Amino acid sequence: MFFLSLIEHTLRLPPHLLDLPLDEAIKGELEHLFLDKVIPNLGLCISVYDLRSIDGGFIFPGDGASTYTVIIYFKKKFLSNVFKFMLLWQVVCRLLMFRPFVGEVLSGKVDSSDMNGLRLSVGFFKDIYVPVHFLPNPSKFGEDGRWVWMYEGDELSIENEEEIRFRIQSVKYPAIPIEPEKDAKPFAPMIITASIDHDGLGPVAWWV
Amino acid sequence: MKVIKANAGALTNFEVLDFLRSRGASNPTRVIGSVAPSEFQVYDYLLQSSACNQTRESVNEFLCKCEKFDLAKAEKLNIINIRPSSEVEIDPIIEQCENRMGAEEVQVLVKTVVEVLPPTKPDNTDEDKIIQDQETMEAD
């Protein structure tokens, strides 16, 4: 469910972070950039796990406040102190990603149900869908808006907010549509398709 | 951004919870510290999961004890995360469970899981209370 991914990123530190230690400032900037965002093929970024290396780059011509350049020029003593915030930093870090693998069993909650199937949630991520063909067979959609599994004469319903186990079928990272359709659903950068059509899957209450 | 290594190792839910705790997510006020709101959501989810009472020792012990079963790394990881406490719960986690493991072997594995990995709610105070209430009601 959680993986580490090693990435390299070049970033510029704005001067207002001058009072922070270098690693803290860089970590803060990285968090600002990546946290709670989906990176295609890597998953949803949960945390910046650690920094592996920080390399000082170079100043782009005309970048940064000119006053600092003056300080660097005249007071060489403070070079290291001020210089570092003028540079572009090349950082290698490990990000903690939420990226379930195909076949993995996760535990979550039922977010909502409709004619097309279920929408599930793991609290911090809600774009998990169970289409009708991955529901246990035979199932029917009741008039009260719940899915019911018809099991040997019994009717086992799937309530909203109920704890549910599901198996990952696929993880997709759709491209951002250039011209979104008028009634399109809000864009989701990462969509997980899950199945509950197996013994032991579905609401925990069915099996315990 | 350049991806050097997309998969630099998997973490169990427990390790993620431990990492967030070390960042200060267990602070009840949730104001002080450098934990982002999205990280708190993950923390809250993990607190509800089987990882909440696991320790480094219990996970290591489980990994030692399940050596004798022919399990893939991903399956061990999944078992630690879900903590299946019955045969039917373990079945979807292990690929082709019936062909690879005999019914007895599965039973031993479930027993190992239940023994080594702590349950989600060790302090059954609520359940105990209900039982006590029932007992007093019956006594009345």
UniProtKB/TrEMBL annotation, chain A:
Residue span(s) of domain RNA polymerase Rpb7-like N-terminal: 8-64
Keywords associated with the record: DNA-directed RNA polymerase, Nucleus, Transcription
Keyword Kinase listed: no
TM helices/strands, residue ranges: none
GO cellular component: RNA polymerase III complex
Family matches, as Gene3D superfamilies: Nucleic acid-binding proteins, RNA polymerase Rpb7-like, N-terminal domain
Pfam families: RNA_pol_Rbc25, SHS2_Rpb7-N
GO terms under biological process: transcription initiation at RNA polymerase III promoter
Compartments where located: Nucleus
InterPro entries xref list: NA-bd_OB-fold (IPR012340), RNA_pol_III_Rbc25 (IPR013238), RNA_pol_Rpb7-like_N_sf (IPR036898), Rpb7-like (IPR045113), Rpb7-like_N (IPR005576)
Domain RNA polymerase III subunit Rpc25: 104-207
Record SUPFAM superfamilies: N-terminal, heterodimerisation domain of RBP7 (RpoE), Nucleic acid-binding proteins
Family statement: Belongs to the eukaryotic RPB7/RPC8 RNA polymerase subunit family.
Protein function: DNA-dependent RNA polymerase which catalyzes the transcription of DNA into RNA using the four ribonucleoside triphosphates as substrates.
Protein name: DNA-directed RNA polymerase subunit
Species this protein is from: Stephania japonica
Lineage: Eukaryota, Viridiplantae, Streptophyta, Embryophyta, Tracheophyta
TrEMBL record, chain B:
Gene Ontology BP, a term: transcription initiation at RNA polymerase III promoter
Keywords: DNA-directed RNA polymerase, Nucleus, Transcription
Compartmental location: Nucleus
Domain RNA polymerase Rpb4/RPC9 core: 1-120
Any one annotated GO CC term: RNA polymerase III complex
Molecular function via GO: nucleotide binding
Compositional bias of kind Basic and acidic residues: 123-132
Record bears the keyword Lipid biosynthesis: no
Gene3D superfamilies xrefs: 1.20.1250.40
Residue span of region Disordered: 119-140
Family to which this protein belongs: Belongs to the eukaryotic RPC9 RNA polymerase subunit family.
Designated name of the protein: DNA-directed RNA polymerase III subunit RPC9
Organism per entry: Stephania japonica
Organismal lineage: Eukaryota, Viridiplantae, Streptophyta, Embryophyta, Tracheophyta
